[in-house]
Specification:
By secondary structure, this protein is of the alpha/beta class. It is built from 20 helices and 13 strands. Helix 10 packs antiparallel against helix 11, helix 11 packs across helix 12 and helix 12 crosses helix 20.
């Protein structure tokens, strides 16, 4: 029968055992060779049971589909030990095994666990786990051994006493361990069985197989059985030192294909520049301006009263494109100040003068007074011998973590140096795992300390680690929070005060319109009110997400820039890492003037 690291037979084996933090981080896991869990029983256990019922140290059981799941908590170290096996099996050693694993793991790594190094490497625990597994399985066999009927000897067999001695010596001898080649051979057999239409398990052969007629119009289903494993995936499955399982590897590969397709780059995904509207080809509101002030053409200089009908049309157009009322009125007032006193002789000059004045006003609002070149900031920090620290903040669900990952890829593509991601959203369930997926796709280091921790301290530890390990950039992900949530805004102000980042970026939605302006305004107010610094640190700039979904209603960018006096560093135009653009001021103004 198939052996699992020389511990137990395939018919009575434990499918999976893992060690999790109470926050859901996976510290270590063991998967029996050839086993692929279906339906993610551990994930469902965490979501449906552990998160809803946190209790004291006790052994618990749960059944889900074909699996039986048992777990044991360690409150002192904040760990959960989970075992998964087939419901059809009766494994007497599971509960003692969990207790033994808990004791041995906590004793072996007491130092690391005391320092909350949850993202440390625990792969060397496998050898000790095998010993504990073998001991507990043998102890369970010994308990039920007396109830078994003795095997009837045949004439060629040794006497029962010798037979017992042979069995004892065999039990005491070390079990044969599987080599990578043996496991590869088993994987090949499983793969071959799948290719023949089976499910990877031993099945009875049909003596009279009949071909199954299928409709020619029906699309062929892909059950995953016809895909051959790559050498890298097979090597990862054969590695018994705690490497990722096949499912994780394939999921990660698919994730990378989605967020970073092969051949994608900033150059290949750049949008073409749209030509500016010429005076001769001006349409819409510009073509109607001459009629509004026809009596003044070529006669006397324009006055504020003369311009009011046209400016009201301008203001309405800006509001229709998501510019806030306050901002639209300020823009029209600036246009009026530029045109009052001019004498315009022709209709074309009227359209051109209005367009130029409006474009000038909008460009003044959007043009930053300080550099928005992050790469230059990183280079300056390198010369100073310190990491460049960026904090991402914003309300819930606007795409902070995705924007962080895009900027990380932007830095990598421009050879900005080593990047460290900091998982400082210790409030929202699943936030650490989300940023962990990005770190694996981007192949960068992640600093995570789990949930229910002080985000300011986690960020401080990440910055300290970056200094010690010579990272060039630290990107800090924070929890999404509404602008009127006092405790969370105070926590954000504390994080910024304690760590003094080089850049604080507010992430907002281009779809939000006036709400985005109110959000960033109240964020700044809350940071100022909750800061203990002599000069409170406010938002340094903005990132606008979902910019590809607003068509020509791009007014949120104008409103946010006008309200804060801060520039827009990037706009997000999709879900891939390359879907990030620097703000193109001329193109945005051209869109507003259409």
């Amino acid at each position: 029968s198939t052996q699992s690291t020389g511990i137990t037979s395939a018919g009575e084996m434990l499918d999976y055992l893992c060690i999790l933090s109470t926050g859901g981080l996976l510290l270590w896991h063991y998967t029996a060779p050839g086993v692929c869990l279906k339906g993610s029983p551990v994930n469902r256990l965490v979501k449906e049971v552990l998160i809803k019922a946190r209790g004291s140290v006790s052994t618990n059981s749960w059944a889900i589909e074909q699996y039986a799941v048992k777990w044991l908590r360690s409150v002192e170290h904040g760990l959960v030990f989970v075992a998964v096996y087939q419901q059809a099996l009766t494994l007497m050693y599971v509960e003692p095994l969990l207790e033994s694993v808990r004791q041995s793991f906590c004793e072996t790594y007491a130092g690391r666990l005391a320092e909350t190094h949850l993202n440390a490497d625990y792969g060397d625990y496998l050898g000790q786990f095998e010993k504990v597994y073998a001991q507990e399985e043998q102890a369970a066999k010994n308990k039920v051994g007396g109830a078994r009927m003795p095997k009837k000897p045949t004439p060629n067999e040794t006497p029962s006493g010798d037979d017992r001695r042979v069995d004892q010596s065999a039990a005491q001898s070390p079990p044969p361990s599987n080599t990578a080649g043996q496991i590869s051979s088993k994987l090949a057999k499983l793969q071959s069985a799948k290719n023949k239409g089976g499910d990877g398990m031993m099945t009875r052969k049909n003596k009279n197989p009949k071909p199954v007629e299928r409709s020619k119009t029906k699309e062929k289903r892909d059950w995953g059985g016809e895909k051959k494993l790559t050498k890298a995936q097979e090597a990862a499955l054969c590695d018994v030192q705690g490497s990722e399982a096949e499912g994780d590897i394939i999921k990660m590969a698919k994730m990378r294909e989605e967020v970073l397709p092969e051949g994608a780059s900033y150059e290949s995904s750049e949008e073409e520049e749209e030509p500016a509207v010429s005076e001769a080809g001006s349409t819409g509101i510009f073509s109607r301006l001459g009629g509004m002030i026809a009596s003044k053409l070529g006669q006397t200089p324009l006055t504020s009263e003369d311009l009011q009908p046209a400016l009201r049309q301008f203001c309405d157009q800006l509001i229709r494109k998501n510019v806030a009322l306050e901002t639209a009125q300020a823009v029209c007032a600036d246009v009026s100040s530029q045109l009052v006193g001019q004498t315009l002789g022709t209709f074309s000059r009227v359209a051109g003068a209005f367009k130029d004045a409006l474009a000038s006003s909008l460009e003044r609002i959007l043009t930053p007074t300080e550099s928005t070149d992050i790469l230059r900031g990183v280079a300056r920090a390198k010369k100073a011998g310190k990491p460049y620290v960026i904090v991402f903040c914003g309300v819930n669900g606007v795409g902070k973590s995705t924007s962080l990952a895009k900027i990380c890829y932007y830095l990598q593509s421009n050879n900005a140096g080593r990047v460290l991601l900091a998982a400082c959203d210790t409030f929202r369930s699943g936030a650490v795992e989300q940023i962990m997926v990005h770190s694996r796709c981007l192949e960068v280091e992640l600093h995570a300390e789990g949930y229910e921790k002080d985000a300011a301290v986690v960020a401080s530890n990440a910055v300290k680690r970056a200094r010690d390990e010579k990272f060039d950039v630290v990107l800090i992900d924070t929890a999404g929070r509404m602008q009127n949530n006092g405790p969370l805004m105070a926590a954000l102000a504390k994080l910024i005060d304690m760590n003094s980042p080089d850049l604080v970026l507010f992430v907002g939605e281009a779809l939000a319109g006036n709400d985005a302006m109110d959000q960033v305004k109240l964020f700044n107010q809350a940071l100022e009110d909750n800061s203990v610094a002599a000069q409170p640190r406010l938002v340094d700039g903005m990132v606008l997400t979902k910019f590809d979904t607003v068509d020509d209603k791009v007014g949120a960018a104008i409103s946010m820039a006008y309200t804060t006096g801060r520039p827009i560093f990037f706009v997000g135009t999709g879900q891939r890492y390359v879907d990030l653009r620097r703000m193109n001021i001329k193109k945005l103004v051209s869109t507003l003037l259409k």
